[in-house]
Structures are given as structure tokens and as C-alpha cells.
């Protein structure tokens, strides 16, 4: 979890190679080739008219959190094991997509939550295997490389 958090911090601080691919008035999505796997990294950025604490309540990875209520790509989120106040092993399930052509997925990740001195909040995750969470029938087990969300306060 700590390594995933550090990897995300490095992605954030390295502006090189990101190419814009989609943009609206609210969100800009960029991509760049991954150095870890044969594929691309993606990042979405936007400014929300809300306090960082209110935004964090919507995205933080906790059981019973708001993410399953607003994010159509997250069907369920559960904590398999709480390792500390800031690190846990979690299972996230996603619904089927494209008229059930894409099967439901499940992801088991170790998740770290951090708050930095400047008020930035981070959730970082990466794939892990856990004996209390073997692959479940009717789900395809997904694999996450380091991923997560930053909630960064901006002036005003």
C-alpha cells in the first residue's frame, strides 16, 4: 500500500509525457504509456465547487461510503481486513457492462489512505491476494496496478 501511494505521488509530480485525450468544462482526462505494464496510465482532473472534506467523503474507500451510491462502476465495496487506521485490504465489485457482454469484476486491493500537511488527501491501492477473499463464482478477478485518487485543496 505504501509503495502504491509513493508511485501515485511520483505520477503526480512528473508532468512529462501526459497527453490530453478528452476534456469537458469540468474534467480533463490525460494518458501516457505505463512503465510497469503493456498499456497506458490515465488521469482525470477537475475542480469541484466543494470543500476538500466533502469531496473526500464521496471518494474515500470505506465500507458503507458514498462511492457505491454515485459511481455506477462500483457495485459494492467491502473491507476484508483492517490492517491499521489507514491501511486495509478491500474487495470492490463492478457490475456487468455492455448488455452483459462484459462480466462483473471483482478486485482485491491493499488500500492506503493518507493526509499530507498541505491538506491533500490520497487513497492509493494495488492488487493483493488475501486468504479471506478467494475468487468468487460469477466474477472475473481483476488486477489493479497502483491506482487511486488525490483530493487537493485549491485556494478559494
Q: How many strands, what sense, and barrel or not for the largest sheet? A: 6 strands, mixed
Order of helices and strands: HEEEHHEEEEEE
How much is the average pLDDT? 93
CATH topology: Alpha-D-Glucose-1,6-Bisphosphate, Chain A, domain 4
Shape estimate: globular
Residue ranges: pLDDT <50 for 5 or more in a row? Answer: none
CATH superfamily: START domain
The total of helices stands at 3
Radius of gyration: 16 Å
* Strand element count: 9
Q: What is the second-level CATH architecture?
A: 2-Layer Sandwich
Which class best fits the helix and strand makeup?
alpha+beta
What would you say this structure looks like, in words?
The protein is α+β, with helices and mostly antiparallel strands. It has one domain: START domain (Alpha-D-Glucose-1,6-Bisphosphate, Chain A, domain 4), CATH 3.30.530.20. The chain has helices at residues 2-13, 52-59, 67-70, and strands at 19-23, 27-33, 40-46, 76-82, 87-94, 105-115, 121-127, 140-141, 147-151. Strands 4, 5, 6, 7, 8 and 9 form a 6-stranded mixed β-sheet that branches. The chain starts with a helix and ends in a 5-residue tail after the last strand.
Please supply descriptive tags for the structure shown above.
StARD5/6; 15% helix; Alpha-D-Glucose-1,6-Bisphosphate, Chain A, domain 4; 156 residues; 3 helices; 9 strands; 3-stranded antiparallel beta sheet; 6-stranded mixed beta sheet; alpha+beta; cholesterol transfer activity; lipid transport
